[in-house]
Structures are given as C-alpha cells and as structure tokens.
Amino acid sequence: MSTLPKPVGERLAGFAQFLRDHGLPVGLTEQQAMLQAAHVLGATQARGLEAAWRAIACSNARQWKQWPELFERYWYPHRLKGTVKVSGATRPRRDLRQAVANLKQTGDEGGQIPGASPAAMAAADHAFGVGESAEADAPRSMGGAARTDALHDRAHQMWMPDDLHALQRLAQDIHQHMRPRPTRRWQSHPAGQRLALRATLRRSVPHGGWPLTPVWQRPQTQPPRLFLLVDVSRSMESHAAFFLRVARAFARCADARVFVFHVRLAEITPLLQRDSAVVQEKINAVTAGFGAGTRIATNLQAFTRQSARAQLSRDSRVWLMSDGFDTDAPEALRESLQALRRHGARITWFHPTRQRPASAALEQARSCVDHFLPLATLADLARARPWLY
Length: 389
Hints:
The protein is of the alpha/beta class. The chain is 47% helix and 12% strand. The protein is built from 17 helices and nine strands. It has helices at 6-21, 28-41, 46-57, 61-75, 96-108, 118-127, 132-135, 161-177, 197-204, 240-253, 269-272, 277-290, 296-307, 330-342, 360-365, 378-383, 385-388; strands spanning 181-188, 194-195, 216-222, 225-231, 257-261, 265-267, 316-321, 346-351, 371-374. The strands form two sheets. It has a six-stranded mixed β-sheet, with helices on both faces. Helix 3 crosses helix 4. The N and C termini lie far apart (55 Å).
C-alpha cells in the first residue's frame, strides 16, 4: 500500500497548524476532510480547492473574511508586499499545486490517505458529490462502520452567525418555559399573597407607625437544574460537534453543567461558558482526543456518585446525548439509570438519528428513561420542546 509522501503531509499539516495559530478551529476531522478534498479536486482546481477548504475550516463570518489573507500568506507569500524575517531553519517549500498533484497521484495508485478515518472519507465524498449514486439507496447505520451522512442533514455542519443566533434563541425559549420548582423561601412581589409583617413595620416608621405601604410576598421559585452528558466516543465522532454546540447554548443561557465522556468522564462547563477562538479550539481538541471506546454505564455511575451527587434532586434534568452503543453490560446501564432516577432526576435521552439505534443498551434502558428523542438538526430540537418543559 502506498502512502502519502512525507513532504506533502508536512505541508498540509503545517497549513492546518498555521490556521489554528490564527484562531480557526481546524482539528483532526477538518484536516482529514481537507486531505480528501485535495485528492478529489486535484491540482488544476486551485480556486475550487480554496473554496472547499474555506467551507471546511471556517465556522463563522469573522473566519470567513479572514480566510483569503491567511490562504495567500501561507501558499503564495511571494504575492504579498513587504518582507518577513524568519529564522535560518530550513522549511519545506509551500507549493500548493505540487502538493495536491502528489496527493492525487498517491490516491490513483490505490493508496489510502493516512489518518483519514472512514467517517471523514464519507463526509468528504458527500460534500464533493463522490459516490452519491452508489449510496443513494443504502440504508443508514450506526456504530461508525458505514459510509453514511453524519447528521442526515449537512446544513448545520458549517455554522454561520444566523444558525448560532437561532440556536441560542431556541435554547433561551426552552429554558424560560421549563417548569420552575418552588422553594421554602419567600420573595417580595406586588402580587404576593402573604403579608411580610417585619418589612411592613419597618416601612411604617416614617408614617408614624401606620402601615400605609404593606409588603407582600410570594414563594420563591428556581428553574430546574440542567445537566448535559455528551458522548464523544468513536461511534459519535460525526455527531459530537453538533451536540456540543447545543450543550454550549444551554450552558450559556441556562447555567447548565456539561460533561463529555467516552471511557471516562470530564466536565467542560468552564470552557463552554466562554466565547473565544482559543476556547473553541480547545473544545475541538478535547472532542478529537476522546474518540475511543464507550462505557456509558461506568460514566453514569461516576456522574451520579461523584460529579453531581450534591446537586441531583427531584427537580434535576439530565439530558444524555448518545447513540447507545456501549461496551458495558446492558444490565449495568439499566442499574446506573435506576440509581440516577432514585435521586429524583428526570432523564431525557437524545439519539443522533431519526430512528432509534438498534442498541441492546437502549432496549435495557427503555423503562428507566422518561423520553427518547431524535436530535439531528435544530428542527428536531424545536420539535422536542413540549417534552423538555
């Protein structure tokens, strides 16, 4: 099997690092898609290749405007005015046409693009129209083995400002309509039903003791505590980015706690509550580095017993975002969900396909989960609102 020449791989890897240094969230998945795009388009389609890479690497309007200058600076520095001083270290030549030509030749000889996972190859094939006729009628499957579309709708793979604003508004609407829980405390309110005697007496002092300005109270309420657990295992590689976008929206408007898991559990709430290109790159790195096996039951036990034990109550909402493919025993998942339910938490399971995945773990968890809901696009999240209130 032939492999990609080292200089070509170094040039593309160097370009990806150059983009990351300037705030573009180019992770492993984006780099694999760029490799596949170069292989499909070839060296003669430089303008089309630039447009394809731009769509892969840019996720907002600022990055979209920044792209032309970055592309020229890396691949065509001789076109820019002025000079740039660099160290005396020898660097490989940045020749876009030659790099893509070598990549195309490697693919034509039957070699495989190194580092390109089946999911990334399938995403690139769909994006550039390769193999659509052969797989138009192929059934969709789960588990990371089939060349299927990642979200069954590529519209939200590239997030523009309007999409992000729509997601944030939808998250705020869902949070505002969640049924608040009453507490034992009281708060002042003009339409309250209970007279606050002490506050009324204090206000009556300027009026000679006459209660001319009574103070009324009503029971204080608090919104339910929201927890989101996002599966970032290998089988969820194509879906984790969308779920993390949704989790970030609720972390910012609903003060939700967000966890990611594969074979272990980690909280990323502080990252999601900040908004910067560097933070987004860290989130992408966490997601890419997690792509391993799945132990849903083990991570649920760690979440229930350690991470959120003090905050779980009958008013807690736990949203589990996973395809249900688990290496733990199905009975262990059912026991973990039952332990979570004993704290009074209301559990909603979001799966990334229109039809529920054929997972033995999901069948065991059927009686322990309040709702199983599909979540592949923003429209699915909007349709799920009645079950989330």
